[in-house]
Design goal:
Elements (H helix, E strand, L loop, with lengths): L19 H17 L3 H18 L4 H25 L5 E5 L2 E4 H27 L2 H10 L4 H32 L6 H32 L18 H21 L4
Antiparallel strand pairs: 1-2
Helix pairs in contact: 1-4, 1-8, 2-4, 2-8, 3-4, 5-6, 6-7
Length: 258
């Protein structure tokens, strides 16, 4: 069974010691600046900076990044290829049957590739380095009703559970029928079975969770106490400040405003 790529990795790194809200704000800063960049070079530097932070400061194992790479880069690559051939242009690069790749399409494809890869990579770093309980308490600290914060907590908590269910079902089918060497049509049917099994198990878990919440009187009082209070961290402020500086510098650099 493959290891979970959507699970918290407790490494006690510098990134782990940053408070949850600062990391959430950091993700927003990265995404906002990424959409302001106009060149592939600036977006590439931002993506390289995220990878460096993941390896050096968050101490995320390279194996974890490689396991998540189909999600981080796979969809972004397909989106980039799509725009490479779909975007019209006058400067033709090459043709592949009825499809024509243009210089304008390459520019647009790189734009969408880096945007999506950066957003997913930053989100994965938040998941890998953040205890979602701390994120829930932080959201309540901002004034969000604890019922909504708990809903976000449950959604993030169920992500690794759903992946575990998918891995378990895939392993069971592989033992019974060697799905990896099956024809494409049979594999499509297997994915239908995966989806059905995961949905049924998810509904079961949701029902059990709802009963547990109701039996404990969740939501009966307007406020809720927590064992661990939220506190802003100095490292979190520094993290956001450094990436604001990086993003601002990249904008000035790509637009030759120095």
């Amino acid at each position: 069974m493959s290891e979970n790529t959507l699970q918290y990795i407790d490494n006690n790194s510098i990134f782990h010691r940053v408070d949850a809200l600062s990391k959430l704000g950091w993700v927003l800063i990265v995404v906002i600046f990424t959409f302001q960049f106009q060149s592939a070079e600036a977006r590439g530097i931002m993506l390289a900076s995220l990878l460096m932070c993941a390896l050096l400061f968050a101490r995320i194992p390279i194996t974890a990044i490689l396991r998540a790479s189909p999600l981080i880069f796979g969809v972004a690559f397909l989106l980039g290829i799509f725009h490479l051939f779909i975007t019209p242009g006058i400067n033709t690069l090459f043709s592949l049957g009825p499809l024509t790749a243009t210089q304008e399409g390459l520019t647009k494809g790189l734009e969408f590739f880096f945007r999506l890869a950066i957003m997913v990579m930053a989100s994965f770093m938040l998941i890998w380095t953040t205890d979602i309980r701390e994120l829930m308490v932080g959201l309540v600290h901002l004034g969000i009703p604890y019922r909504y914060a708990f809903a976000i907590f449950m959604a993030l908590r169920f992500l690794p559970i759903v992946q575990q269910e998918v891995d378990a079902v895939k392993a069971a089918h592989a033992i019974r029928g060697r799905a990896s060497s099956s024809p494409v049509r049979h594999r499509f049917r297997l994915w239908q079975r995966y989806l059905f099994t995961v949905i049924v198990n998810g509904l079961r878990k949701a029902e059990s969770t709802a009963l547990a919440i109701e039996s404990r009187g969740f939501g009966a009082f307007p406020d809720r106490t927590y064992v661990k209070d939220f506190r802003w961290t100095f490292l979190g402020i520094v993290l956001m400040f450094l990436f604001i500086i990086l993003g601002t510098w990249l904008i000035f650099w790509e637009r030759h405003l120095f």
